[in-house]
Design a protein that fits this description.
Blueprint (H helix, E strand, L loop, with lengths): L4 E5 L3 H12 L4 E5 L2 H10 L4 E5 L1 E2 L2 E2 H11 L4 E6 L4 H10 L3 E4 L7 H28 L10 H13 L6 E4 L6 H10 L8 E5 L5 H9 E2 L11 E2 L1 H4 L4 E5 L6 H13 L1 E2 L8 E2 L3 E6 L3 H6 L5 H7 L2 E4 L10 H15 L6 E2 L1 H8 L6 H15 L4 E2 L6 H11 L3 H16 L4 H8 L3 H10 L6
Parallel strand pairs: 1-2, 1-3, 3-6, 6-7, 8-15, 8-16, 9-12, 12-15, 17-18
Antiparallel strand pairs: 4-5, 10-11, 13-14
Helix pairs in contact: 3-4, 13-15, 16-17, 17-18, 18-19
């Protein structure tokens, strides 16, 4: 197995050949160049991990070469070689981004261990870059699936507001993807290189929520043994997503309003204000206007949050997106569980279309995950759905409601017993002959 690709740039042919043999024996692939011009051509055409480069070359200087290459290709590592132990060159090389600096002849035994460390760093950097790319894609607008006019309208609004610093209010039922939208807005903004932090305001009581958001000073209350930064300070220059904002105690709402109006806040137990530059994205599944009328939400905070509002449609209003979402979840969960599931039966799809999906995308995701767990074949079928979903469709579709429910129940018990009809009859409390008659009547197979 190849450990990595090494490029040697040195005008001494004998030394190049020697290093090539030594490095190749360690499992590295080695390429050679006698000058910088040739080395650059190889570098541009090939996927090089580490460059071993002489300092003094016919057409240039290795120290300057590092300065030229590193800004363009930060993932590559360069080790400089010289016949002269010039400390000044070594210092400048490191400042320019060289991985290390070796003296020819004196440090030959250090080359292989040094190459190993350089390759480890390159591989780690490449892995981090891949993960960052995956995370960026995962949280981009491209990750929001849907072709319905309602979701496309919401995406279009989010894309318009993303590059600004405007406060955003996301409205929608539980499970409609409000946090996914918030992350996409952050990722599409100039703050994308900084923190995105999320907090569900319904998860904490008033005092704990105040400490989580605004932080506290040591001694502010029992147990506060040291200073603690709140999420607003942690998200400085980034984005703070406050989910279920309607659950925030009205006393804390005034502190949040101050942040939005003045970009400053006071920690619990502190006497001076802390300045921050943070973007707030809030979300709720409640009617904030009604909450204002009921005296549960500050009117001034509502208008401040309501600068730019995006409504996320429930899944029942965008049913044309159900199959696209389901296929995506099948792909995710079948990969995680190492299963080969190619799709859904027509009956399974019909069942999905006829659900109300009160839990929206989150509910659909859970249903598909469960179905993938149960499936032993390459296709998802109605019997892989939760029993209540099977019954809901059976009773809504058939003029013989009781018969449909009975059929679904027999199928479920038969599946539970892995096709064993004797055990199925026992669990159903009917005779084996009766079970066979019903299997034939409902055209149920045990395969």
């Amino acid at each position: 197995m190849e450990k990595g690709r090494i490029l040697i740039i040195d005008d001494e042919e004998q030394l190049r050949s020697l290093m090539n043999r030594v490095i190749s024996l360690e499992g590295f692939t080695v390429l050679e160049a006698s000058n910088l011009k040739t080395g650059l051509k190889i570098f541009e055409k090939d996927d090089i991990d580490v460059i071993l480069c002489d300092v003094k070359l016919p057409d240039g200087n290795g120290v300057d070469f590092v300065k030229e290459i590193k800004p363009k290709s930060p993932l590559i590592e360069i080790i400089l070689l010289t016949a002269y132990g010039n400390v000044g060159d070594g210092v400048q090389a490191m400042k320019n981004g060289a991985f290390d600096y070796l003296v020819k002849g004196d440090d030959n035994d250090k080359i292989i261990p040094l190459l190993g460390r350089a390759i480890e760093k390159v591989q780690l950097q490449k892995r981090i870059a891949q993960l960052e790319q995956q995370v960026g894609k995962r949280y981009s607008f491209d990750s929001i699936l849907g072709n319905s006019s309602l979701i496309l309208e919401s995406i279009a609004l989010a894309k318009k507001v993303a590059p600004t610093d405007a406060t955003v209010l996301l409205l929608g039922e539980t499970g409609t993807g409000k946090e996914v939208f918030a992350q996409a807005i952050h990722n599409g903004s100039k703050r994308s290189g900084n923190s995105f932090l999320a907090l569900n305001c319904s998860s904490f009581g008033k005092e704990l929520l105040e400490s989580e958001i605004f932080g506290h000073k040591a001694g502010a209350f029992t147990g506060a043994v040291k200073d603690k930064k709140g999420l607003i300070e942690e998200a400085n220059n980034g984005t703070l997503f406050l989910d279920e904002i309607a659950e925030m105690h009205i006393d804390l709402q005034s502190k949040l309003l101050r942040v939005l109006e003045t970009n400053e806040f006071i920690k619990v137990g502190d006497t001076k204000a802390t300045k921050v530059n943070v973007r707030i994205i809030a979300a709720t599944n409640r009617n904030l206007q009604q909450e204002v009328k009921d005296g549960k939400f500050r009117e001034d905070l509502f208008y401040r949050l309501n600068t730019f509002t995006i409504l996320l449609p429930p899944l029942r209003q965008r049913k044309e997106d159900i199959i696209l979402l389901a296929e995506n979840f099948i792909k995710i969960f079948s990969s995680r569980m190492n299963k080969r599931i190619n799709g859904m039966s027509r009956d399974f799809i019909d069942h999905l279309y006829q659900q109300e999906w009160k839990g929206n995308i989150r509910e659909l995701k859970n249903v598909i995950e469960r179905a993938v767990i149960l499936a032993n074949e390459s296709e998802l079928k109605p019997e892989h759905l939760p029993l209540e979903l099977q019954y809901a469709v059976a009773t809504s579709n058939s003029s013989f409601d009781l018969a449909s429910v009975e059929k679904a129940h027999i199928q479920k018990i038969l599946q539970y017993n892995k096709g064993n009809k004797t055990k199925t009859a026992e669990l159903l409390g009917i005779g084996l002959t009766t079970l066979y008659r019903k299997l034939e009547e409902y055209k149920i197979t045990s395969e």
